[in-house]
Amino acid sequence: MPIQAFLLLPEQDEVFINIGDTPEDFKGVFDQIIQISDVIHKNQDIDLWYDSKNLSVFLEQIKNLFDNDQYLLKPTMLLKTKLEKVSRDWRDRSKQDREYNYFIWLFDTKSAKEDNNTLAEITERIFCYKTGKYLLLNICQSIKTNKKQIITFKDRDAPSYLPNFINIEFVSDADELLIWLKKTDVSNWIFLEGNRFRKTKFHQQGAVVYQDITTKQYWYLDNLHKDHYEVFDAQRNHIGIADLQGNIDKTRKVAGRKM
């Protein structure tokens, strides 16, 4: 099952204040979101979800903050188009149980705050699909916490006891996402870092084939063992295999093999 990544955009005034006070500051946030979506779009092992309601609130806040500044109109349209192209609105496939309330556990005050939006959706999906892997893209610390995870739970009423907690991992920008992917042993992380590879239309063993932009070599993950990449030259002749760190071993070349 692919990793399920959920985008959460800022809505609270205090988060907007921390971002900055110029249109350029917020264009930087737009660029960061697009960079994150590009990283995820390159990887067939990750599904990206967004919340159409959250996106609308985020963009409306910015529109009001800068009185519909012309400088942000093009980035706004680009962001909306990008998300609609590479991600899905989880509200179209919501899993939340309407008989329950969902809560975030606040460590500082040792209390619970109700949240029936993106965090609630992740919480319910973890309950439904316990073997899946989930990640919150907590843009600009939309939910501020000094912990490495956000703790949630669900119950019919605000509880007087502590039920089973759900730990939701999160990252706040593209750099943290790449670090998380490496630590999570996502085998395709090498294709996501920087601009070394481009995605091609080809598939091998059910895996997407990538091309090294400089050398024109073709790479894909061996889907049987998932512990190495098969590497071919620009003419699609096999030249060897590479480990998950990207080191090519040409002694493992299979003569006569073509992609």
Outline the fold blueprint:
Layout: E1 3-8, H1 13-19, H2 23-41, E2 46-50, H3 52-65, H4 73-86, E3 88-89, E4 101-106, E5 111-114, H5 118-128, E6 134-138, E7 149-155, E8 166-171, H6 174-183, H7 189-192, E9 197-204, E10 207-212, E11 218-221, E12 229-232, E13 238-242, E14 248-249
What does this entry look like structurally?
- The structure is a single chain.
- The chain has 259 residues and is of the alpha/beta class.
- The chain contains 7 helices and 14 strands.
- It has helices spanning 13-19, 23-41, 52-65, 73-86, 118-128, 174-183, 189-192, and strands at residues 3-8, 46-50, 88-89, 101-106, 111-114, 134-138, 149-155, 166-171, 197-204, 207-212, 218-221, 229-232, 238-242, 248-249.
- It has an 8-stranded mixed beta sheet, sandwiched between helices. The chain has a 6-stranded antiparallel beta sheet with strand order 9-10-11-12-13-14, with no helix packed on it.
- The longest helix is centred in the first third of the chain and has 19 residues, at 23-41.
Number of structural domains:
2
The residue ranges in which pLDDT falls below 50 over 5 or more consecutive positions are none
Relative strand content = 25-35%
Spatial strand order of the main sheet: 3-2-1-6-8-7-4-5
Mean pLDDT: 87
Number of helices: 7
Mind summarizing the main beta sheet? Answer: 8 strands, mixed
Distance between the termini: 27 Å
DSSP E strands, number = 14
User: How much helicity do the residues have?
Assistant: 25-40%
| Secondary-structure element string | EHHEHHEEEHEEEHHEEEEEE
Radius of gyration: 21 Å
Look at the helices and sheets and give the structural class: alpha/beta
Overall body shape = globular
